[in-house]
């Protein structure tokens, strides 16, 4: 994409900042007036290139299945463009009840609250802010750009090293008295 647009994008730097909306990252590399067209191009190319290379995080399918087994709903709330996010979720074979895209950090709070989610799982400090804004318990997963300590320092209620630990945590948290919860992942 960078070659096609004639701009330099340091991929290591961009990857280190994953999490915020695409347009925010692109603004680091090009004039503001070029960002919308660049984002459209990225999404077009990204779906063709990224989806076949994308794999589900270890423990993701099991986490979704566990929430469903207990009668909960799985809602994906993401900074990714909604159409792209839906396609990725489908390609991974994950079953989400709803996908909400193009929201970041505390901006996710309204969606989290509207679904009545009790738990919000994410790997970015923005996800901790999202959970707090949405009135949900924040479960930080140290698989993204932030360490477990950084997630704790930003207020995560629970920190897991990866999603493979979600099942044990969820079963313990849920307890026998809770019949169903909406979990946002």
Layout of strands and helices, then pairs:
Elements lengths: L1 H4 L5 H6 L5 H5 L8 H19 L6 H10 L3 E5 L4 H10 L6 E3 L8 H6 L4 E4 L2 H10 L2 E5 L6 H6 L4 E3 L5 H9 L7 E3 L1
Parallel strand pairs: 1-2, 1-6, 3-4, 3-6, 4-5
Helix pairs in contact: 4-6
Unreliable spans are none
Report the principal-axis shape. globular
Instruction: Characterize the main sheet.
Output: 6 strands, parallel
Task: Name the beta content range.
Answer: 5-15%
Total discrete domains: 2
CATH class of the largest domain: Alpha Beta
Summarize the structure.
It is an enzyme of class 3 (hydrolase). The chain is an alpha/beta fold.
Task: Note down, in words, how this protein is organized.
- The protein is of the alpha/beta class and 185 residues long.
- The protein folds into 2 domains: 2-53, no CATH class; 60-184, HAD superfamily/HAD-like (Rossmann fold, 3-Layer(aba) Sandwich), CATH 3.40.50.1000.
- It is 46% helix and 12% strand.
- The protein contains 10 helices and 6 strands, in the order H-H-H-H-H-E-H-E-H-E-H-E-H-E-H-E.
- It has helices spanning 2-5, 11-16, 22-26, 35-53, 60-69, 82-91, 109-114, 125-134, 148-153, 166-174, and strands spanning 73-77, 98-100, 119-122, 137-141, 158-160, 182-184.
- The protein has a 6-stranded parallel β-sheet.
- Helix 4 runs parallel beside helix 6 (82-91).
- The two termini are 29 Å apart.
- The model has no long low-confidence stretch (mean pLDDT 91).
- One of its GO terms (biological process) is DNA repair.
- Its EC number is 3.1.3.18.
